[in-house]
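Chain A, query sequence.
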Amino acid sequence: MAIRTKPAKQEKRWTAAQLRRLPAKKRDAIMKAAAAMAEQEYRTNRDFTAFEAFGKEDLYGDSGSTETR
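Chain A, predicted structure.
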């Protein structure tokens, strides 16, 4: 006899408008759970951290410059 398991329940995707209509406690619980999931993804997915924030072309001039723009 085969044992059947239910497929994993797909998480609801909330819009900002839907979240705003929820009571504060429920909204906070949803946001806390989402933040925990995002933290795990951020810590394990190198695509989120394997880049330079600024290149040489992204910064304005010489930091020692006192000229006005």
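The two ends are 78 Å apart (CA to CA). Residues 4-8 have pLDDT under 50 and may be disordered.
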